[in-house]
Design a protein that fits this description.
Elements (H helix, E strand, L loop, with lengths): L5 H13 L7 H9 L20 E4 L2 E3 L2 H11 L6 E5 L5 H8 L3 E6 L2 H14 L5 E5 L12 E6 L8 H5 L1 E14 L2 E10 L2 E10 L12
Helix pairs in contact: 1-2, 1-3
Keywords: Cytoplasm, Methyltransferase, S-adenosyl-L-methionine, Transferase
Organism: Acetomicrobium hydrogeniformans ATCC BAA-1850
EC number: 2.1.1.77
């Protein structure tokens, strides 16, 4: 079980792991201090839910280290009311951060069990109306709901899929951990301006791989 005073754990997490690493977006810092991260991890790991590391959530997947969630969100720079596509629901924590920031989130997961578990947490937090879920192949995006102001990929991609770019609105941003060498990924931010793509490279990181298709039950 997480400590009854999880608010203090979340506050310390933000101060020592996120603010101290030069994340400055005040709305993001506030959202992560108010979000009960322990709800997104298995019961036996709730005591370490606010630790400075990624944690397994079953099905061979993880919830990312708090700093990495913060860094990717700051690079994405979502604004209140933005329509955001997330590739890889996982635990649902990243989608919840975006919802707490006032975004309209569309999140795709290839593993049905994870998607259903995340939906229950969204309902418990009262944000189910802000997060639309779908079971599918994230490489294909969500064409019927495009364009999106922001696209965030939460698994290691071997390439930037054309569908993500096509579904990104003019002036939109894409953030993705891209495989740059063996077992090494780097956070890439792409901004779409006047039909051209402007790329920036940021932190090195480690994610589970983005896999094709939908996992069969």
């Amino acid at each position: 079980m997480a400590s009854p005073d999880w608010h203090e754990e979340a506050r310390v997490m933000v101060e020592t792991q996120i603010k101290s690493r030069n994340i400055k977006n005040e709305a993001l810092l506030e959202a992560m201090s108010k979000l009960p991260r322990h709800l997104f991890v298995p019961d036996n790991l709730r005591r370490v839910a606010y630790a400075d590391c990624a944690l397994p959530i079953g099905e061979g997947q993880t919830v990312s280290q708090p700093y990495i969630v913060a860094k990717m969100t700051e690079l994405l720079d979502p604004q209140k009311g933005d329509k955001v596509l997330e590739i890889g629901t996982g635990s649902g924590y990243q989608a919840a951060v975006l919802a707490f920031l006032g975004c309209e989130v569309y999140t795709i997961e290839r593993i049905a069990a994870l998607s259903e578990r995340a939906k229950k947490v969204f309902e418990k937090l009262g944000i189910a109306d802000k997060v639309q879920t779908k079971i599918g192949d994230g490489r294909l995006g969500w064409a019927e709901e495009s364009p999106f102001d922001r696209v965030i990929v939460t698994a290691a991609a071997s390439k930037i899929e054309e569908t993500w770019i096509d579904q990104l609105a003019e002036g939109g941003r894409l953030v993705v951990p891209l495989v740059v060498s063996f077992r090494t990924e780097q956070l890439i931010k792409i901004t779409k301006l006047k039909g051209r793509l402007h790329e920036e490279r940021h932190d090195y990181c480690s994610f589970v791989p983005l896999l094709p298709g939908v996992k069969e039950i």
